[in-house]
Design brief:
By secondary structure, the protein is α+β, with helices and mostly antiparallel strands. The protein folds into 2 domains: 89 residues, no CATH class; 102 residues, Chitinase A, domain 3 (Roll), CATH 3.10.50.40. The protein has 10 helices and 6 strands; from the N terminus they run H-E-E-H-H-H-H-H-E-H-H-E-H-E-E-H. The strands form 2 sheets. A 4-stranded antiparallel beta sheet has the order 4-3-6-5. Strands 1-2 form a two-stranded antiparallel ribbon. Strand 1 and strand 2 form a beta hairpin. It is elongated and about 90 Å long.
Length: 247
Amino acid sequence: MALAAPLLCAQEMVRGTVNGTPVTQAILEELTKLVPPEQRQAIAGNPEELMRYYGYIGRMSEMAEKEKLFEQSPYKERLELARKQILAEAMMTEKGKDLNVSTEEVAKYYEAHKDQFTVVNVTVVQVPVKTDSELPTAQAKADSLWKKLQSGGDFNAMAKEYPVDGDFKSFKKSDNMPVEIKDAVFQLKPGQVTKPLSRPNGVFMIRLDSIVEKSLQDARGDIVKSIQDDMFRQWMDSIRKSVVIAK
């Protein structure tokens, strides 16, 4: 809330006058969105040109008012649709400000979705497989590495020799990934390694390095946003379903 007042003042700051009318920062920001794409680079970054554009469309609209173009088609219909669109956006914005989430709702969500807040950090050995014919050889190599590991082999050295393809250093139980990998890793204790797991792109051995569970306090912001997003989606769906279409 401490930042609200300065931001509001900045929005209300008068940046100049056009034909005697004060032009605020808020007006310039909204005007920037209306500048045609082909003129945006030249106008949007230049406050003076932006105000000149404001004056230009003001003059043109005054001329249109005198000609009563707002009463003619298709301008009449386009104006009405534009008004509806702006009001619809305003309603969505105001609804978004009114989505209150209680402490009890946050706690309940946390308990029901702990998988989203539990992360495992891992180190991976991947014996690569490029074609189906390479799989038996890769499985044999992985089995050999596994036996070596049981005899005191250095897993870190294996991981350097057979690095994982891509960024696979951590994941959550709720992530969309092969069930057999998730189940195998989440059954481990820190420091333990899975037996070789065959996948189309390789044979994997995965060491569980650590398990990090985000606390309720640390997860609160993410939870509130998730609940608010769901509330907003439900509200939007209810509005859509209330629409009656007849042919």
